[in-house]
Amino acid sequence: MPANAFNGFTEYGIGIGLRVPHYRHILAKKPVVDWFEIISENFMVDGGRPLEVLDTILEQYRVVQHGVASYFGSADKFDREHLKRLKRLVKYTNTPWLSDHLCWGSVDGRYTHDLLPMPYTFAVARHTAEKIRFARDYLEVPICVENVSSYAEYHASEMTEWEFLSEVVEQADCGILLDVNNIYVSSQNHNFDPYEYLNNVPHHRVGQIHIAGHSKFEKYTLDTHDHPVLDPVWKMYAHAIQRVGNTATLLEWDDRIPSFEEVHHEALKANEFRDTQLATTAS
Amino acid sequence: MQRVMASALFRPLTSKWGMQKRWVDGAPMEALASKFIKPNDRLNSFERLEIYNRQYWFRVLDCLYDDYPGLRAVVGERRFMKMATAYLTQYPSDSFTLRDLGNRLEQFLRAEPHWSAPREELALDMVRFEWAQVVAFDGPAHPPLTPDDILDTPPSKLQLRLQPYLTLLELNFAVDDFLIAIKKRESDVLRGEASNAMNSAPKAAVVRKRVRYPKREKVHLAVHRHDNLLYYKRLDQEAFAILTSLSRGITVEDACLEAVTASKRTDVDWSAEIKSWFDAWSALGWFCRTP
Ligand SMILES: [Fe+2]
């Protein structure tokens, strides 16, 4: 949906992930960018250069926070310190919505720094939804949860990933950050039809979309974010916006990062799909 | 399930960067993995879990590798990786941010000096210095003191608080110069890699050119930031003593008196010297208000 409760009723277009190698270019050239996605944890610090950069960015751009360590799916309770710092940042950036992953990653206060897949059970869905609700109420900002790419499935699972995602977001009454590339990567690793996934999530809850590049190996596909978006993912993206409407979209490029222009150019390709989709809808 | 899986991920890889074949109790790892992970048509349960095991170690080792180039140079590249693996096995990350990954490295190296033998002291100096840089980069800052704040307090009563991002280090080696040389060598290597120009030095030659270990000498260092850039500043022994006393809550008058009394230097105009130090430190914003 273009604007909905899950993205703070905003109509954002194509965004870029704010990454250190581009700081100098952005601060000096001030390129026209619709919005920047920042990794919350990189700015949940007490002072210094990161916050100075953020200040300058906030003066000129719209910023949306994307987290990597809330771990809604960890059996652990929330890390209080993490939540407190996150709230401070939310107030600071005034992010219209906030996203993090539908995954787990810490146990007993020890961190894997990874986005680990969940067993798709009703009990786990209930627990995860409760944590998302708690975070939303505490942080006072809409939350979109992102589907992760995965390389393993559990015997314990009682449903498909898209059924699990739907179950969680319905129970939490939260939004979805639909990562089209992650769906593709997981569909390759777990032999499912990615379009069945796209067609069977609650479309009215999609607040944002991620696209990215991945790498194919002999026996599995890895979510590497280190090159342009591949064709099957663009096709899925076109299908996704046909279903959910013109939605805030972000290109993720996190490794072997090329020049800012190159990343931006790649991201703007998404506009072509949006325009085609709008033309089809109009005719 | 999460506890078992996390324990599996935190177990070190084999020397060939694979998952260990046996679990802690000696049972085959495949048996444990297949209890909770489904195989598919291409990978068995062991191999699927192994992807995550490898991913975990590559991520955390990469992080320490990048953040501690000085320590890496002191202990040697290959031993650094083994040391980092032993460290993270004993102290898995306890923070949501990778910034804190090395927060117990000093403690670890003190308890297990064999990792840095025969350069244990140099390694400790280096790890303290590199951690101080992490703190100086994005540690908290309080509003700096203004002259008005202390106008009415006599030196005999005046206590000054130092910025939390500032670390004072008494070192046995000039690790500051050593680290600069290490970083220069690494950037030369990188430049060598990036360029195919005929006149650029062959990579191997640059790599082979070792930076000489620093000689033993007392160095007093303040690691801090200014305009959000990282700096290290050498301090005279007396200046270091004054700052250290101040950080312990000793009054300005007592701190200066102690430092001057302990000094072996003669023919010094101490009041002029001390005034110039305090002027410099104030200009750098090192003194802050109590929050
Ligand atoms: Fe994503």
Kindly list the characteristics that best describe this protein.
heterodimer; A: 283 residues; alpha/beta; two-stranded antiparallel sheet; 13 strands; 19% strand; globular; B: 291 residues; 2 domains; 3-stranded antiparallel beta sheet; two-stranded antiparallel ribbon; 53% helix; binds fe (ii) ion
What does this structure look like?
The complex is a heterodimer of chains A (283) and B (291). With 283 residues, chain A is α/β, with parallel strands linked by helices. Chain A has one domain: Alpha-Beta Barrel (TIM Barrel), CATH 3.20.20. Helices cover 43% and strands 19% of the residues of chain A. In chain A, the strands form three sheets. An eight-stranded parallel barrel of chain A has the order 1-2-3-4-7-9-10-13, surrounded by four helices. In chain A, strand 1, helix 1 (23-29) and strand 2 form a beta-alpha-beta unit. The model of chain A has no long low-confidence stretch (mean pLDDT 93). In chain B, a hairpin with a 2-residue loop joins strand 4 (216-226) and strand 5 (229-234). Chain B is elongated. Chain B has helices spanning 2-10, 29-36, 45-67, 69-75, 77-90, 105-111, 120-138, 147-150, 175-194, 203-208, 237-247, 252-262, 270-283; strands at residues 37-38, 161-162, 167-173, 216-226, 229-234, 287-288. With 291 residues, chain B is mainly alpha-helical. Chain B is built from 13 helices and six strands. Chain B has two domains: 2-138, no CATH class; 140-174 and 218-291, no CATH class. At the A-B interface, helix 3, strand 5, strand 6 and strand 8 of A face helix 1, strand 1, helix 3 and helix 7 of B. Bound molecules: fe (ii) ion. Fe (ii) ion binds at residues 146, 179, 182, 210, 252 of chain A.
CATH class of chain A: Alpha Beta
- Strand order in the largest sheet of chain A: 1-2-3-4-7-9-10-13
Please indicate the count of domains of chain B. 2
Bound molecules: fe (ii) ion
**Whole-number tally of structural domains of chain A:** 1
Termini distance of chain A?
Answer: 20 Å
The major pleated sheet of chain B works out as: 3 strands, antiparallel
Radius of gyration of chain A, rounded? 18 Å
Mind telling me the C-alpha Rg of chain B?
25 Å
Oligomerization status of the protein chains: heterodimer
The SSE string of chain A, one letter per element, is EHEHHEHEEEHEEHEHHEEEHEH
Uncertain runs of chain A:
none
What gap, in angstroms, lies between the N and C termini of chain B?
44 Å
Mean pLDDT of chain A comes to 93
Mean pLDDT over the residues of chain B: 91
Cα shape of chain B:
elongated
